[in-house]
Design goal:
Keywords: Lyase, Magnesium, Metal-binding. The protein is built from 15 helices and two strands. The chain has one domain: Farnesyl Diphosphate Synthase (Orthogonal Bundle). Helix 2 packs across helix 4.
Amino acid sequence: MPDLYCPLESAINRRVREVELGAARWIRDSGMCASGDETAWVLATHSGDFFGRFAPTADEDRLLATSLWVYWGFAFDDARCDNGPLSTRPAQFNALAGRVQRAAEAPSADDNGERFVRPLQNIVGLFRSFGTPTQVRRFLHAHRAWLSGVAWQIGNQARGHMPGLDDYLAMRLLSCGGEPTFAMLELATGAEVADGELHRPAVRALTEMAIMVAGLDNDRHSLRKELSHGHTDQNIYSVLMHHRQMSLQEAVEEATRIRDRILVRFLELHDRVRPGAGAALGGYLQGLRHGIRGNAEWGLRVPRYLSLGRLPDPAEDAPLTWAQAPSDSSARPLPGAPSLAWWWDRDLA
């Protein structure tokens, strides 16, 4: 793997250790893990460290609540999405996703025996206790988007379909979980961006690019483990190998160019939008930067991706090296990805 290009500042919340200890107690009491092994792998996501890099200024209570959703999301993904019994049964997964989403929206909804429902309701209850109605609603909309992307992915798996590059990238924007993760920035910091600013095309493009860079980085982080377990159905590398007849190494190099071109565009557009942003929007844009860098740092060290055995190994603590220049700095839209081409529109505002 080539070194990652990421010329963004590194930061981490000083309360991460306390948050991870509190999260471990909550996870063990929540009932969402069916075994000790499941609990070990969920804890090995180090989701407090992960989101502490997205929100380095959040207070401890807010960081704990938002980190709990990341832990919950990894647990749900492992048991119900990627490799669980519903991973090739789209009808059954869609029914579950609908119940889970409604339970997040309605505190009175019954769990119907689904072990992930009550913990999710507890987390969203924490969000309601300190977030504004707008912030909570934005998170719930993003949560629905994530589940729709997972349903798309499972549908492909069920029919043995390898999506083309454009479909894969559009699906990955949703299925990687970036929508709810970045929506939690407002909940973590307390700052609410006005609708007119958050939904500007340029800000939406920046959000989507941050999600995509992080999603492609996660494809990279998880590749070694997926190869060792035979779980390589849909990722950026399998898409390129299948549709462009590339070797794995060629696919790695091409995926790196795709990722770097998107990051270069993010940096350029960010630097045009940021000077005119108010305090709330400026904080949100900084959160996108922290998220890209933090996700990269976390993924290069976290046991979830580095451990190949039955149980997770300790986290890595070796120094990280970074590429000094992007592998592709073209200012043109990605070829073969028309659904993303609007990110490069010159008149984005």
